[in-house]
């Protein structure tokens, strides 16, 4: 095993690298950031993440959602760092792995949003109202210049004199969209009109949204974007995979993995499903504990899995909450309205702010090549996915959802 000192961090790996080597004995009292580096396939293993256990360092599957004990086959310096929540994995197959090691999140974020329809407009309103502590500015772009003008006037006129730190809304040109710390994709193409739904509304949008998102994924590559690429448009899980694939192809359409890294892409659709599950849970005395004990997994649509309680699991109650949550958007549509307000705020503004602030939230993240929705948190050590001792039969259902997502778009 080799030990390398990189300023105030340590990299442990079996690989021979051109960095300053140090002896293991010299690191006995080291209590800083420890990286474990290994060469893993970039299409099926994350580029950077916080290590929950040594099990994370093996083949990447849904098993990373389970609680595991550490293996003693690894150096004590790494095991101590894992136990003390200061250990990261970095994939050495990335040409820019040193940049990943040296990268750090800003104190205040520059956020750029493309797409100012119902969701985009509501989302930036939420960011303006709630993001003052973490958001420095909100850049907006849409092909319709009138929408840009409208939202600049409207949002900048939302003001609380007791809280003057609200981020300023400003226009950005299309070629400036990736001059930011977080890019937010809210473009929606082909949303069915109310009353004309024949199948899953989210999947209907996939074809049109995929074409547009592909263009922005390639622009992210061209601009060497190192921030977070956030997908809010439906279906977020599948569009995240599009962003990863399309940004990592060269001009000949061949994969070279010089685009967006897997840890940069996050899909924001599960936040509203968790919020809807809690809404329905509050109607029943047996499920009122959902907010504390329950969890949401999977996509923003077919394949969703709502668990009434991770400690007192009840299959009937979980199935009931899953069904009500999954069909809630159709209930709103039956009343004659498009269901965009709660998604734009719960999945969008609130979850984006939680991401930037280093707080727990729901989002879809790269796991073994598929983007899977779960509860997670962004830390200085990378994305940390919440882990569980799964109730009986739940993990099998979760695996079915994972396989379903993987089968739709590879």
Your description of this structure?
- This protein is α/β, with parallel strands linked by helices.
- It folds into three domains: 2-102, no CATH class; 109-266, 3-Layer(aba) Sandwich (Rossmann fold), CATH 3.40.50.720; 270-408, L-2-Hydroxyisocaproate Dehydrogenase, Chain A, domain 2, CATH 3.90.110.10.
- 34% of the residues lie in helices and 20% in strands.
- It is built from 13 helices and 17 strands.
- The strands form four sheets. A six-stranded mixed sheet has the order 3-1-2-4-6-5. A six-stranded parallel sheet has the order 9-8-7-10-11-12, with helices on both faces. It has a three-stranded antiparallel sheet with strand order 15-16-17.
- Helix 6 packs parallel to helix 7 (236-247).
- In the sheet with the most strands, the strands line up as 3-1-2-4-6-5
What is the architecture of the largest domain at the second tier of CATH? 3-Layer(aba) Sandwich
Q: What do we call the CATH homologous superfamily of the largest domain?
A: NAD(P)-binding Rossmann-like Domain
Structural class: alpha/beta
**H-E string:** EEEEEHEHEHEHEEHHEHEHHEEHHHEEEH
Number of strands: 17
**Low-confidence runs of at least 5 consecutive residues:** none
Largest sheet: 6 strands, mixed
Question: How much helix is in the residues?
Answer: 25-40%
């Amino acid at each position: 095993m080799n030990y390398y000192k990189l300023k105030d961090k340590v990299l442990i790996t079996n690989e021979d690298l051109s960095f300053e080597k140090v002896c293991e004995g010299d690191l006995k009292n080291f209590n800083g950031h420890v990286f474990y580096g290994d060469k893993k396939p970039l299409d099926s293993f994350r580029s950077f993440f916080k290590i929950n256990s040594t099990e994370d360092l093996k083949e990447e599957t849904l098993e990373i959602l389970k609680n595991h004990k550490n293996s003693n086959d690894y150096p004590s310096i790494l095991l101590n760092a894992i136990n003390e929540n200061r250990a990261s994995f970095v994939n050495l197959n990335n040409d820019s792995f040193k940049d990943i090691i040296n990268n750090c999140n800003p104190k205040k974020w520059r956020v750029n949003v493309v797409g100012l329809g119902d969701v985009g407009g509501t989302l930036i309103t939420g960011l303006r109202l709630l993001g003052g502590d973490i958001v420095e500015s909100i850049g907006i772009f849409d092909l319709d210049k009138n929408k840009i003008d409208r939202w600049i006037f409207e949002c900048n006129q939302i003001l609380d004199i007791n809280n003057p730190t609200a981020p300023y809304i400003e226009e950005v040109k299309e070629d400036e969209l990736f001059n930011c710390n977080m890019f937010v994709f809210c473009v929606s193409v082909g949303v069915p009109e109310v009353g004309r739904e024949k199948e899953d509304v989210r999947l209907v949008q996939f074809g049109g949204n995929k074409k547009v998102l592909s263009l922005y994924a390639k622009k992210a590559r061209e601009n060497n974007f190192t921030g977070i690429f956030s997908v809010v448009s439906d279906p977020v899980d599948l569009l995240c995979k599009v962003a990863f694939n399309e940004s990592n192809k060269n001009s000949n359409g061949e994969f070279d993995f010089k685009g967006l890294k897997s840890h940069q892409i996050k899909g924001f659709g599960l936040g509203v499903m968790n919020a809807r599950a809690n809404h329905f849970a509050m109607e029943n005395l047996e499920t009122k504990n959902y907010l504390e004990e329950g969890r949401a997994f999977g996509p923003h649509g077919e394949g969703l899995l709502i668990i009434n309680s991770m400690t007192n699991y009840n299959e009937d109650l979980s199935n009931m909450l899953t069904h009500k949550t999954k069909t809630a958007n159709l209930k709103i549509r039956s009343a004659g309205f498009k269901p965009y307000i709660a998604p734009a705020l719960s999945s969008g503004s609130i979850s984006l702010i939680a991401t930037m602030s280093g707080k727990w939230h729901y989002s879809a993240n790269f796991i073994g090549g598929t983007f899977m929705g779960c509860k997670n948190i962004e830390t200085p050590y990378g994305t940390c996915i919440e882990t569980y001792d799964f109730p009986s039969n739940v993990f099998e259902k979760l695996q079915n959802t994972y396989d379903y997502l993987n089968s739709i778009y590879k």
